UniProtKB/TrEMBL annotation:
This is Response regulator. Residues 3-119 form the Response regulatory domain. The modification 4-aspartylphosphate is found at residue 52. GO terms for biological process: phosphorelay signal transduction system. Keywords: Phosphoprotein. InterPro entries: Bact_response_regulator (IPR050595), CheY-like_superfamily (IPR011006), Sig_transdc_resp-reg_receiver (IPR001789). The keyword Phosphoprotein applies.
Amino acid sequence: MSKILLVEDETILRETLAEILELNDFEVITASSGLEALEILKDTVPDLILSDVLMPGMTGFEMMEQVKIQAQFKDVPFIFLSALTSHDDKQKGLDLGCRHFITKPFKSFEVVKLITATLAKD
């Protein structure tokens, strides 16, 4: 069972998406901020990180930069979920090394499909 770290500050979205992922046979660990995610990552190495970009305290971009400098997380794929829609924002995520940049609102089956495809490639 693949382990996903889901980082999302919107409670309802985080809980709903976690439930959908669990129903699709993923183990899900949740964090409500980038700072909380960094604390979780001290004790676990997920197979994939699914993160919002705009969060209080630390953006998803900043979190990804801090995660990716640590050797044990170098190959952990990131997928961003965001209300940001500009080409520049998407390009920034891709330049940082995220695998996919999903714009909110999204269809849950699309997220599951991208996660499954991303994990199958690794």
